[in-house]
Amino acid sequence: MADQVPIITVDGPSGSGKGTVSQRIADRLGWRLLDSGALYRLVGHAVAQAGIGFSNKNKISEIASKLNAEFKDGEVWLDGIDVTDLIRTETAGNNASKVAAMPGVRAALLDWQRGYAQPPGLVADGRDMGTTVFPAAGVKIFLTASAKERAQRRYKQLKEKGLPANLAALTADLKERDARDRGRAVSPLVAAADAVEIDSTALGIDDVVELVLRQAQRSFAKPP
Ligand code: C5P
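Above: the input record for the complex with cytidine-5'-monophosphate. Below: its predicted structure, written as tokens.
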């Protein structure tokens, strides 16, 4: 199934705008959206809730393989509890990146992610969508932005939500997460060889969306 369904993968570091861009593209095309980061955030949250510590790899992989999660109308539920906001904090992002470095966790989430490839199409947002999860995707985007710009965007987002934010702490967290995501042995954050790289430092969301849609038009256009 995944082979016949058109797929756009959007990978890149935290704060590059992947989430918003992917959502807009999915809306414009009427395609499904896979927010793969939410899965790792859910595992991190479940581990923190269980109070088992982040070194127990076997237990954490087991948690990932039995994750009782549901996505509905933009909300994320875990074991019948709405965790939509809880998994969006900086701590949840950092916990996600810790469990994401574990091969057992990545393996446990692979089929679940591939199951999202359903007609009419899929936009998959993450770190390894174009390299590991959907290596045959028709369009692969690697979205970047400078660390300074990404930290400032996160700062603005948090402030707009009325949440506490500290730019220096955010920058440090982001760099730590980038280093862990790029340096891990399994599925590290890296652009696929056939990905189109877009630097969004000086671009607005709308500009990036148009660039990706143009790329999709070229790649998925039916032969005459
Ligand atoms: O994209 P988001 O910030 O929600 O991802 C949270 C963390 O989950 C990332 O820092 C990364 O460590 C991990 N992740 C991953 N592979 C993905 C998506 C997210 O390792 N495909």
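Notes for the reader.
Residues 14, 36-37, 40-41, 93, 96-97, 100, 126-128, 177, 181 surround cytidine-5'-monophosphate (CB under 6 Å).
The longest helix spans residues 167-183.
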